[in-house]
C-alpha cells in the first residue's frame, strides 16, 4: 500500500482538530465538576468516553501534523468514537431535559453533521494516491 498524499488542507484540519480536542478535554474536565441533575451520567461518560476520545484525537492530530499516514486511520477512529458517544447521549439528554432543547438540539445536530463530514473527508483522504 502506498503512502497517502497530504495536502495543506490536511494540516490545517489537523491543527484545528488539535485545538478542538484540547478544548474538549478541558470541557470534559469542567463538566465533571458542574452541579447537574445528570452529574453521575456526565462523570461516567467523561471518564469512559469523552476523555479517551479526546486523547485519541490529540494523538491523531499530532500524527497528521507530522504527515504520518496512520494519523488518518486514528482520526477516523477518534471521530467514530465521538459519533458513537455523542448521538445517543445527545438524544437522551435532549428528550429528558426540556429546558435545554433549543440550544442543545442545535449543538448536537451541528456536531453530528461536522463529525460525519470529517469522517467522509478523512476516508477520502486515506484513499488519495500520488499522481
Description:
- The structure is a single chain.
- The protein has helices at about 10-35, 40-65, 70-95, 100-125.
- By secondary structure, the chain is mostly helical.
- The longest helix is centred in the middle third of the chain and has 27 residues, at about 40-65.
- The model has no long low-confidence stretch (mean pLDDT about 85).
Features:
131 residues; 4 helices; mainly alpha; single chain; elongated
Count of helical segments?
4
Instruction: Give the total of beta strands.
Output: 0
Overall geometry: elongated
Report the portion of residues in β strands.
under 5%
Output the helix-strand order.
HHHH
Helix/strand structural class: mainly alpha
> The biggest beta sheet, please?
none
- The helical percent reads over 70%
Radius of gyration: 16 Å
Distance between the termini: 15 Å
- Overall pLDDT metric: 86
Q: In terms of per-residue confidence, which ranges show pLDDT below 50 for 5 or more consecutive residues?
A: none
Detail the topology: elements first, then pairings:
Elements lengths: L7 H26 L5 H27 L4 H27 L4 H26 L5
Helix pairs in contact: 1-2, 2-3, 3-4
In short:
By secondary structure, the protein is mostly helical.
Amino acid at each position: 500500500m502506498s503512502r497517502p498524499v497530504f495536502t495543506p488542507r490536511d494540516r490545517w484540519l489537523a491543527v484545528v482538530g488539535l485545538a478542538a480536542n484540547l478544548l474538549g478535554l478541558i470541557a470534559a474536565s469542567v463538566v465533571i465538576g458542574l452541579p447537574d441533575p445528570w452529574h453521575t451520567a456526565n462523570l461516567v461518560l467523561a471518564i469512559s468516553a469523552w476523555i479517551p476520545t479526546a486523547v485519541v484525537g490529540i494523538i491523531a492530530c499530532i500524527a497528521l501534523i507530522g504527515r504520518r499516514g496512520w494519523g488518518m486511520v486514528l482520526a477516523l477512529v477518534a471521530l467514530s468514537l465521538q459519533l458513537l458517544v455523542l448521538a445517543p447521549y445527545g438524544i437522551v439528554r435532549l428528550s429528558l431535559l426540556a429546558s435545554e432543547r433549543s440550544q442543545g438540539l442545535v449543538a448536537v445536530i451541528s456536531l453530528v453533521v461536522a463529525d460525519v463530514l470529517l469522517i467522509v473527508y478523512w476516508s477520502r483522504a486515506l484513499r488519495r494516491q500520488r499522481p
